[in-house]
């Protein structure tokens, strides 16, 4: 599933190419994805200029001149790409935004876990997708003191807490494993046992790994591509995720894989001792 770096990279790849463009029409080829596509979508966005792109957690927001915002989530297999007039539609192209200059923004989603919503920009903070979210991990608000305060009463594994969007947004499975490795914290440690130094190291590690992932264009394991159809290259820089059975790049021990809350966790038992 695309995580924060992938959505940030998607935003950056599209921003300079579509800001200022006008959405002339919307072609809805399927009535529902994870949720029904709003029946007002075509009326709300047609003949409106794109004024800005922004990201909230793992959601892309296309801001329009009429103060409406298109909310897009890629789900597990979604792709949102900019295409030219030569583009031939594909099987899982569910929504196509027709732009001026004969270009198209195409939402393709084979597994249909993605979503497209519409909202007034002034109501975004209270939207059901956003109103209970924690801070952005790259923000100043996500720091050791904040994390300690949130973890002090949580008797669950630290990796689960790191992936809780009510605590911090956008750190999904890949980057939680990588952050814990860089901070030398075992993913099975109880959240409430972290010291202040460990919390400081973990917040710094999370920021570090996310910034480097954004610089590399995100991580493509299977489906993800950026707005210009290029994959992300952070996979080549992963220390533990997806490397079970291989030697740790730091100490040489064998990377282990376990399941936590139904998700795969990868770690080095030597570098990340309990």
Question: What is the H-and-E element order?
Answer: HEHEEEEEEEHHHHEE
- Supply Rg: 20 Å
Give the strand order, joined by hyphens, for the main sheet.
5-7-6-1-2-3-4-8
Strand segment tally: 10
Helix content: 10-25%
Report a brief summary of the structure.
By secondary structure, this protein is an alpha+beta fold. It has helices spanning 4-18, 41-45, 144-151, 158-162, 173-183, 196-215, and strands at residues 22-28, 48-56, 59-64, 68-73, 78-83, 93-99, 103-109, 115-120, 256-260, 263-267.
Task: Give me the secondary-structure topology.
Elements: H1 4-18, E1 22-28, H2 41-45, E2 48-56, E3 59-64, E4 68-73, E5 78-83, E6 93-99, E7 103-109, E8 115-120, H3 144-151, H4 158-162, H5 173-183, H6 196-215, E9 256-260, E10 263-267
Antiparallel strand pairs: 1-2, 1-6, 2-3, 3-4, 4-8, 5-7, 6-7, 9-10
Your description of this structure?
- This protein is of the alpha+beta class.
- The chain folds into two domains: 4-126, Alpha-Beta Barrel (N-terminal domain of MutM-like DNA repair proteins); 144-267, Helicase, Ruva Protein, domain 3 (Orthogonal Bundle).
- Helices cover 23% and strands 23% of the residues.
- The chain has helices spanning 4-18, 41-45, 144-151, 158-162, 173-183, 196-215; strands spanning 22-28, 48-56, 59-64, 68-73, 78-83, 93-99, 103-109, 115-120, 256-260, 263-267.
- The strands form two sheets. It has an eight-stranded antiparallel beta sheet with strand order 5-7-6-1-2-3-4-8. A two-stranded antiparallel ribbon has the order 9-10.
- A hairpin with a 2-residue loop joins strand 9 and strand 10.
- The two termini are 28 Å apart.
